[in-house]
Amino acid sequence: MRVICDRISRVYSSALEESVQKFLEMLGKVNRAYLTVVEEKLLNVLESEYGGEIIP
Length: 56
Known about the structure:
By secondary structure, the protein is mostly helical. The N and C termini lie far apart (28 Å). The chain is built from three helices and no strands.
């Protein structure tokens, strides 16, 4: 679970679109230690799109 939270934290920023922020917030609240296949794919897309570096 810690790995998932770390990945979310690297991507999350107030500069993101609201829908992306809400998705990441929801992922952070999921009460399980893994992501579903779709959640993993979406997080991968966000990581590749933003590269963990969001500039406001």
